[in-house]
Amino acid sequence: MANYSKGDVILIRYPYSDQVAYKVRPAVIVSNQAGRHQTFFAVPITSRIGDLETDEFMLDWEFAKLNVPSSIKRGIVLIQTNMVLKRIGEISSDDFAAVRECIAHWLEL
For the chain, what is the domain count? Predict the structure, then answer.
């Protein structure tokens, strides 16, 4: 099993709501000890940044080794390790703190 960590940017087969079809997209791992489990939580990343919601933000995409300017996409998904195609990079500690704030806002914590 690959050793993934919180803050890693990965390329995943992102499931649609029917859980059958998928699209390939980047995501950031938000689970602690992601490398120790067969499943972990991730937040999707999008390059469609024209209409950012107030609880979404631009990532330091170059630091994260993404190809184009990107932002997080509202939502948390449960990912199985077999859905991961590869590790791309990792987000900065400032970006991870902002992701945590967004998750808390989404879940009204």
Answer: 1
> For residue range 12-53, what is the model confidence (pLDDT) as tens digits?
998 777 777 888 999 999 998 766 788 999 999 988 877 666
**Beta bridge mates, 23:** 14
The CATH number covering residue 98 comes to 2.30.30.110
CB atoms within 10 A of CB 9: 23
pLDDT tens digits, residue range 79-97? Answer: 899 999 999 999 999 999 9
Please give the distance of CA 36 from its chain centroid, rounded to a whole number: 18
The structure's pTM equals 0.86
Helices and strands (H and E) in the chain: how many: 1, 6
Which residues are within 8 A (CB) of 11 and not within 5 positions of it... i.e. 6 or more apart? 24, 25, 26, 27, 84, 85, 86, 87, 88
